[in-house]
Design goal:
Layout (H helix, E strand, L loop, with lengths): L1 H18 L3 E4 L6 E2 L5 E6 L2 E7 L4 E13 L2 E9 L2 E9 H7 L1 H21 L4 E6 L14 E6 L2 E7 L10 H15 L4 E10 L4 H7 L8 E7 L5 E3 L31 E4 L5 E5 L2 E7 L2 E4 L3 H10 L10 H4 L2 H11 L1 H4 L9 E2 L12 E6 L5 E6 L7 H17 L2 H4 L18 E7 L7 H5 L8 E6 L9 E6 L2
Length: about 475
């Protein structure tokens, strides 16, 4: 019986090699090894089959105990690497893998093994109860970041890692908090103390800054930064307390040219003193000193007004669909008191302060309420799991300038909107989005923000382009 099992493993490998045009061997954490008739040998050894492959740099010998999965272009084998050590080894047709994007999955498996070694080094007395890179769409758990549960008795830690080549390394904290919250619900008998993060040295600053603004009473946070050799060092989060933020002086200029005058055109004063001319948030012209820089002629501007209208007949037109966040910003500027009756309708500033994360896909406004307290308004027209922490990035910068009393010193809020006794009060944070487009996991992440950040979610109606109507509010006003 055992010889038959070993023979079946051998036949599965032979079938794979016969149908593959460019076979390679892939073991988690290692580079691919090309397979040819000259460097690959396999023979039956009772219940198992012994595999041997080599190149100029390495010689790999594994005992294969079973075929875990066999598909066209890929064979996953269960192997033993050393006494009581088990793992997997994949045979892949590289030609098919390029078409199916298997190199990405292989890289993720490699980093997962690096993450495993890190956890074993840093938590030698604990049990690695779970380690996975599998997607879990139901609970919003991404395959891009390996996640783990590290357990010692009745206590445990959630852990997550960001690979050095991750396309969005800053997203690791969002998914880490979701993972932590999910584990606490799933494992009520465990005292899950907090979250361990494994971060690349070149992509750790944003995450570490964000950790400083989380609630220490809700969870503990432990960050390790690793170098290009995979060696990690625990970091002191206080070393990341310096924000890269700069507040440009607000400039007011006397403009000598005639403004663009047309129905449906908005005139927005920019922070540099110039004017921006927009149709529902989409800029088509602006001033540059005494000149008018126009991307569209007046005739084309009138066409833009027609096409970018809430009553437009063609809602698939690119001009209608372009930059919905800018359109939402236009609506919020116009109906600010509907968003919050305590906010003053003017002045309202956009992109203050500006910082390098402009690609985050969220637009922001800065307003003030009748008590003199600043309000950061973050706008997102579609579902985004990262909205809470992207908003935090902007809020923390505004808070830094509030602490330094820089807004009025640099020409913002020139009247008495910001009262002296409120200059150091943390600004409010308003997250504005269509009510049905708040991501279900946003609430999970918001649970972990510092209580010093007064956050309110404001959901507007589906037809917000026609009428900005608040459907619900959630959180502290």
């Amino acid at each position: 019986m055992t010889e038959v099992l070993g023979t079946e493993i051998l036949r599965a490998v032979e079938r794979f090699l016969e149908t593959s045009r460019d076979p390679v061997l892939c073991e988690p954490g290692e580079e691919w090894l090309e397979i040819t008739a000259e460097n690959f040998v396999m023979e039956v050894r009772g219940a198992c089959a012994q595999l041997q492959a080599w190149d100029q740099r390495r010689n790999l010998v594994r005992s294969v105990t079973a075929v875990e999965r066999e598909t066209r272009g890929k064979l996953v084998l269960k192997v033993t690497r050393f006494p009581k050590g088990q793992g997997t080894l994949e045979l892949i047709d590289r030609e098919r893998a390029v078409r199916d994007n298997l190199p990405l999955r292989s890289a993720r498996l490699g980093f997962r093994e690096q993450f495993r070694r890190f956890l074993r080094r840093q938590f030698p007395a604990s049990k690695l109860a779970e380690l996975t890179t599998e997607a879990d769409l139901e609970h919003t758990l991404s395959p891009a970041y390996p996640r783990a549960l590290v357990r010692q008795g009745a206590s445990a830690w959630a852990a997550i890692g960001a690979a050095p080549d991750a396309s969005h390394p800053d997203g690791v904290l969002t998914f880490g908090l979701i993972w932590l919250d999910y584990l606490r619900e799933r494992e009520p008998s465990l005292a899950i103390q907090g979250l361990v993060l494994y971060l690349p040295a070149g992509g750790a600053k944003t995450t570490c800054l964000r950790l400083l603004f989380l609630n220490p009473a809700a969870a503990q946070y432990c960050a390790f930064v690793y170098d290009d050799q995979g060696l990690e060092e625990r970091v002191d989060l206080k070393d990341y307390g310096n924000l890269d933020t700069h507040l440009e002086p607000y400039r007011r200029r006397t403009l000598n040219h005639r403004m663009v005058e047309a129905a449906g055109v908005e005139t927005i004063e920019r922070n540099d003193g110039e004017l921006s001319f927009r149709v529902h948030g989409l800029e088509f012209a602006r001033t540059a000193g005494s000149e008018l820089l126009a991307g569209l002629s007046r005739k084309r501007a009138a066409e833009l007004v027609r096409l970018r209208s809430p009553d437009a007949a063609d809602r698939r037109n690119p001009l209608y669909r372009r930059n919905p966040e800018a359109w939402l910003e236009s609506q919020v500027r116009t109906h600010l008191r509907d968003i919050d009756a305590s906010l003053l309708p003017a002045p309202v500033y956009g992109q203050v302060p500006a910082f390098a994360a402009a690609e985050r896909g969220v637009l922001d406004l800065l307003a003030v309420d009748h008590r003199g307290r600043l309000a950061v308004i973050e706008l997102k027209a579609s579902e985004d799991v990262h909205l809470p922490l992207q908003a935090l990035d902007y809020w923390m910068r505004v808070q830094r300038h509030v602490e330094r009393s820089e807004f009025q010193a640099k020409g913002y809020f020139p009247s008495s909107e910001i009262r002296c006794e409120l200059l150091r009060e943390p600004p409010r944070l308003l997250l504005v989005s269509p009510a049905l487009d708040f991501h279900p996991s946003n609430e999970r992440v918001l649970r972990y923000l510092s209580p010093q950040i007064p956050v309110e979610r404001i959901g507007v109606g589906l037809e917000w382009r026609k009428q900005l109507k608040v459907m619900y509010r959630s959180g502290a006003p």
